[in-house]
Amino acid sequence: MILIELFAPAGALDQTQHQQVGKRLIDALMGTEDAHAPAVMDSARALTQVLIHEPAAWITGDRQPVDPADPPRYLLRVSAPAAWRKEMSAHAIDRLTQALAEIEAEAGRDPDRLRDQPHALVHIVGIAEGSLGMCGHPMGSLDLLQHMTAPHRDAIANIATDDLPPGTVIDPVCGMTVDLKTTDLTLEVEGTLYGFCNGQCRRIFADEHGVPLNA
User: How many domains does the structure of the chain reveal?
Assistant: First the structure.
């Protein structure tokens, strides 16, 4: 599960914008490209939530309150399993900042200030393994990935591969296209070479097929 929290000054966004911003932030974080199987992306989106906060007070480090007449500042906090934090940080910070810049442009404000000045802070927070609960029990990062992908494995196995570029394969866990020339995340099972987009997909596949991984 991923939680996106947006803190904005009271009145900076109206109720209609709240809904639009929430959807836009999810799209920005997840991406609109078909990197993974569509059904897996739908599962990931279903586990992503956005909360929008309007603090009663907003004080900057120079002890000055943020003037409501000024262009609004933003704080975005993204909470995700710690195992995902490092991989997702670079693209998440860039994409979420861009989503806020587009919102500013639509409001008639200068979108460039969010990249020129520290007016949009993004915190990517990693939740320690065993500290995230769902369905009444702790869920580790592998558990979450298993939850998102397991119902779609048959569909992933049936993805057409005729049009894939040479040297690429479909990750059998999440459905992402993997270039075998640029990854060492592979496993050979019963004479078939599989490639994986990350180590967790590889771990899940290995566990399900009883394939030992080197320490």
Answer: 2
